[in-house]
Q: What sequence folds into this?
């Protein structure tokens, strides 16, 4: 299980000891709904989600501020359910509201994308967001992902609402070209 480092961040695997920090951002009424999940109502709910989504997954990391050693968000690579290709992975992320606009998510995502292509040798990294999620779109664009189109009525969220998905992706070849010619 690889630890990844950036200038300001440590990306490390999540443990049960991170429950309080994850609950701190997952209970916000503004974090989860941007990604389709309901705000957590208790630490027990957070721990249950962690056991399913975060724990014991090699490509799911906590986003840790190096200066304070505080977990402020999470980021991971998962199978892309929208693509029937094993060489593709989907990146997903969430970060606490006090850290929005700091560049931390972009910094973490760039490192995970680099790791995906240079170490794991994945062929394509995809990402999806709802049309109203401008912050996530900005992260994707800053990381070099290209807009592919909109998948209409793609996802029913916890509230029962049906949302479109804006689809973004970058191939390993596109990434390598971009790295050679920044």
A:
């Amino acid at each position: 299980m690889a630890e990844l480092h950036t200038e300001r961040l440590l990306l490390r695997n999540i443990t049960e000891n991170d429950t309080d920090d994850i609950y701190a951002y997952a209970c916000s009424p503004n974090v989860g709904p941007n990604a389709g999940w309901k705000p957590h109502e208790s630490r027990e709910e957070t721990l249950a989600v962690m056991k399913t989504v975060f724990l014991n997954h090699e490509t799911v990391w906590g986003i840790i501020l190096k200066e304070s050693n505080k977990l402020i968000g999470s980021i991971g690579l998962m199978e892309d359910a929208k693509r029937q290709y094993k060489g593709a992975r989907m990146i997903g992320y969430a970060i606490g509201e006090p850290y929005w606009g700091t560049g931390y998510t972009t910094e973490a995502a760039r490192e995970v994308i680099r790791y995906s292509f240079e170490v794991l040798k994945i062929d394509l990294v995809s990402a999806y967001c709802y049309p109203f999620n401008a912050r996530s779109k900005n992260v994707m664009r800053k990381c070099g992902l290209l807009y592919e189109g909109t998948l209409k009525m793609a996802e029913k969220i916890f509230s029962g609402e049906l949302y479109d998905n804006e689809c973004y992706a970058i191939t390993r070849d596109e990434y390598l070209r971009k790295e050679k010619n920044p």
Observations:
- The chain has one domain: 4-180.
- Residues 37 and 137 are 18 Å apart (CA to CA).
- The mean pLDDT is 95.
